[in-house]
Amino acid sequence: MSIATFARLTALLDEHQARYRVVEHPTAGKSEEVAKIRGTQLGQGAKALVCHVKGNGIKQHVLAILPADQQADLSALAHGIGGTRASLASPVEVDALTDCVFGAIPPFSFHPDLLLVADPLLFQRFDELAFNAGTLERSLILNTQDYQRIAQPKLVTFIRTE
């Protein structure tokens, strides 16, 4: 668990006067479970996937953010940033790039080699986003417009449609 990531994240949000609140909760392994504990809708969850995108001369690690009630189309993600294929990163790579375990990765990139992208649907349905903030026992509920303004993710449509 990364207390350092949580501290860095809250400092960033405070610096930019973001509207957010912290929710302490028991460890929950699935998006559905943590949404119930937080008192939020599943679709408010900002799910973070660390991926490799390759092809067409591109070799890029990507932090892909999408609503927790959706599934990622990794091929669409790859094509959206100019590559030909994408795969999920290993747990070792996730740790090195995010300083977080799977499930605790916030939708912010603090690593220079990790490109932040978000599916536009993330910004269209809810006024607030919820996500684990560096640990599995602590979440942030953040104003959606503040998230987009502060994080400035590259917008790529990559939600699975079939």
Plain-language structure description:
By secondary structure, this protein is an alpha/beta fold. It has five helices and eight strands, in the order αβαββαβαβββαβ. 27% of the residues lie in helices and 31% in strands. The mean pLDDT is 95. The chain is globular and about 45 Å long. The protein has one domain: YbaK/aminoacyl-tRNA synthetase-associated domain (YbaK protein, Alpha-Beta Complex), CATH 3.90.960.10.
Write the layout of secondary structure elements.
Elements (H helix, E strand, L loop, with lengths): L2 H13 L4 E5 L6 H8 L7 E10 L2 E10 L6 H7 L4 E4 L2 H8 L15 E5 L9 E8 L2 E6 H8 L2 E2 L7
Parallel strand pairs: 3-5, 5-8
Antiparallel strand pairs: 1-7, 2-3, 2-4, 6-7
GO molecular function, one term: aminoacyl-tRNA deacylase activity
Keywords: Aminoacyl-tRNA synthetase, Ligase
Pfam family, one: tRNA_edit
Short description:
This protein has about 160 residues and is an alpha/beta fold.
Please give the count of helices.
5
- Helix/strand structural class: alpha/beta
The general outline is globular
End-to-end gap: 35 Å
Question: What structural keywords apply?
Answer:
YbaK protein; 3-stranded antiparallel sheet; 5 helices
